[in-house]
Amino acid sequence: MMEDCWGRAKAELRKAVGENNFAHWIEPLDFKGVDEGVARFGVPTTFMGDWVSRNFGDSILQHLNASGAPAGRLAFAVAPRAAVAAPTTARERAEPVRAASDDQDLPGAPLDPRFTFDSFVVGKPNELAHAAARRVGEGGEVTFNPLFLYGGVGLGKTHLMHAIAHELQARQPHLRVVYLSAEQFMYRFIQALRERQMMDFKQLFRSVDVLMVDDVQFIAGKESTQEEFFHTFNALVDQNKQIIISADRAPGEIKELEERIKSRLQCGLVVDLHPTDYELRLGILQQKVQQYRRQYPDLVIADGVLEFLAHRISNNVRVLEGALMRLFAFASLVGREITMDLAQDCLADILRASDRKVTIEEIQRKVSEHYNIRLSDILGPKRVRTIARPRQVAMYLAKQLTSRSLPEIGRRFGGRDHTTVMHGVRRIEELKTIDNQIAEDVELLRRALEA
Ligand code: ADP
Ligand code: MG
User: Fold this and answer.
1) Strand pairing report for 147-151 and 177-181
2) 3-state helix, strand, coil in the chain (%, to 5)
3) Contacts of 386 (CB under 8 A, 6+ apart)
4) What's the 214 CA to ligand 2 centre distance in angstroms?
5) How many angstroms is it from 52 CA to the middle of ligand 1?
6) 3-class secondary structure per residue, 164-226
7) What's the CA gap between 314 and 91, in Å, rounded?
8) Closest CA to 220 of 194, 266, 253, 244
9) Model confidence over 358-414: pLDDT tens digits?
10) Cα separation of 287 and 334, whole Å?
11) What pairing do the DSSP bridges indicate for beta strands 30-35 and 38-43?
């Protein structure tokens, strides 16, 4: 009976979390039943329990409840292998002989199941990095070694590396793919030194098929770690094993990194992730909304909110995602549609921090240039359409692109009342939907102002 509930919940979860996540994280769960409101599961490792709980806990509870198993909490206990019912991960399905203990010997860090190629939005700023990552993920002949990805914080380096690892593991489950941060590499190295297990350490790292080291700038200035990294690196390259490295800057610009390492790192393919642009940010937001909707179909977002966020929030995708998650959380808490006002309220701090500092004066100047009218006319009292319309466009942009209030904007437009500004803003909002020319003008101006 409870088993049936879990069966139904699983069917829903499969849709909610996607095939990949489902196979990795949900399928291997051994449902034991619900008692006193606690749904109990057996899991092969503690890590897996933690991960599932953190990332899928809410979904699991929701679907269990929906399918008639009243649970308020989840509990995961490590079950002995034999007790785990189904075949577990994709890797084990493909190669059942591989012992679990063998897996645990791999020195890598866990992969985030959400960081796949499917969930990576491609735009101009990251298309090269994405193409290179895809190629490596295909796992064909090693053509560039290493693949070196670099770029600022939150631009998707880690996401791409995990995506490569997922892809490789799906295509070639026998490959020993190891992902870890440079910091973890150092930590393991020091531990090996301390415990006099350098031979094991060397052997382990030299036996992997694909090695990924994230944020390699971390080992700059750390001499013996660099030394060991260099040897590991060379040993793997000599065996024609793929290496993937990331850093926050180009190899040549990492200070206190040995020259010979820099030149080694430059030998393969070096690609950078550029700061995001408006289109990419909007694409990412739209994708997140789509994902979220799969779980919460009731979500309503007013027109223009995503565009507003894409314009106003900085390059860092992590910040962008954080803002959106906060909006989702808030909207679901108060059961309200996500409107522009809600967004502005709820994200005031983030918006302020990444304010682009477009000024009202700049907006007025650009708009008057664009429509070929005088700046003084925008500020003055004339009401003819050829002037009034551009003025409204400028007001609209001032509202959208700055954090000024309506009365403040009114004051800067020759001392107009805030209701006049509000009327202007609304008018442009309407016109944008029915008049392509206006929509285009606004878009052009907006881009010019934010460039
Ligand atoms: P980095 O390692 O470069 O600092 P991450 O890979 O950790 O950045 O990315 C930060 C967050 O932004 C992650 O949640 C990631 O999924 C998301 N992200 C970054 N770029 C993209 C993209 N192009 N498409 C979808 N999500 C992205
Ligand atoms: Mg990272």
Assistant:
1) unpaired
2) 60, 10, 30
3) 371, 373
4) 7
5) 20
6) HHHHHHHHCCCCCEEEEEHHHHHHHHHHHHHCCCHHHHHHHHHCCCEEEEECHHHHCCCHHHH
7) 39
8) 253
9) 889 999 999 999 999 999 999 999 999 999 999 999 999 999 888 788 999 999 999
10) 23
11) antiparallel
Ordered by start, the domain boundaries in the chain are 2-84, 91-272, 288-354, 360-450
- At 225-266, the pLDDT tens digits run 999 999 999 999 999 999 999 999 999 989 889 999 999 999
Positive or negative: CA dihedral 420, 423, 429, 434: negative
Determine which of 103-112, 161-170, 269-278, 366-375 has the lowest per-residue pLDDT on average. 103-112
Question: To test ligand 1's pocket by mutation, which of 212, 281, 318 has the most ligand atoms within 8 angstroms of CB?
Answer: 318
User: 333-337 long-range CB contacts below 8 Å, 24 or more apart?
Assistant: 337/300, 337/301, 337/302
Query: What is the CA(111)–ligand 2 centre distance, in A?
Result: 12
Distance CA 5, CA 64 (A): 7
Whether 363 contacts 449, CB under 8 Å? yes
CATH class of 91-272: alpha beta
| Residues 373, 394: Cα–Cα separation, whole Å | 12
DSSP 433: H
Q: Which residues pair with 201 in a beta bridge?
A: none
Q: Is 272 helix (H, G, I), strand (E, B) or coil?
A: strand
Between CA 296 and CA 122, with CA 347 as vertex, the angle to 5 degrees is 65
Six-digit token string for 439:
């929509």
373: left (phi over 0), alpha (psi -120 to 50) or beta: beta
Phi/psi class of residue 256: alpha, beta or left (left: φ > 0; alpha: ψ in -120 to 50)?
A: left
The class (CATH top level) of 360-450 is mainly alpha
Q: Whose CA is nearest to atom 6 of ligand 1?
A: 156
CA–centroid distance for 10 within its chain: 26
Q: Is the peptide bond before 381 cis (omega within 30 degrees of 0)?
A: no
**Which residue has its alpha carbon closest to ligand 1 atom 19?**
156
**Quick one: angle between helices 198-206 and 223-238, nearest 10?**
40
R_g of the chain, CA atoms, integer Å: 27
Site of tokens 């918006």 = 351
CA-CA-CA-CA dihedral for 336, 337, 340, 345, to nearest 10: 20
Give the CATH class of 2-84. Answer: alpha beta
Cβ–Cβ < 8 Å for 53, 41:
no
Q: Which CATH architecture has domain 288-354?
A: Orthogonal Bundle (1.10)
H or E stretch at 67: none
423 burial type by CB count under 10 A (0-12 exposed, 13-18 middle, 19+ buried): middle
